[in-house]
Amino acid sequence: MLMTRDYQWCSWFKDGRTSLQDEPRSGRPNTANDWNTARVDELIKVDRRMKLKEISLKLDIPKTNVYEIVHDKLGYHKVSA
What we know:
Elements: H1 3-14, H2 34-46, H3 52-59, H4 63-73
Helix pairs in contact: 2-4, 3-4
């Protein structure tokens, strides 16, 4: 850890911070959540030849998030592009 990071943490705790956890951030929420993971898995089980773009359109979530769910969270490797 860099010395500047140490000083930054010390400053935060002097200002009243009590937790090591990250503060909530603003911005768009992640759509690769448990609920969407279950929905994607169900669609793949119904039709294993469904393409990522079709899943994306059907569930109204970005194709990149569908890819993340299918490959990273569900561990499927051979899925139609």
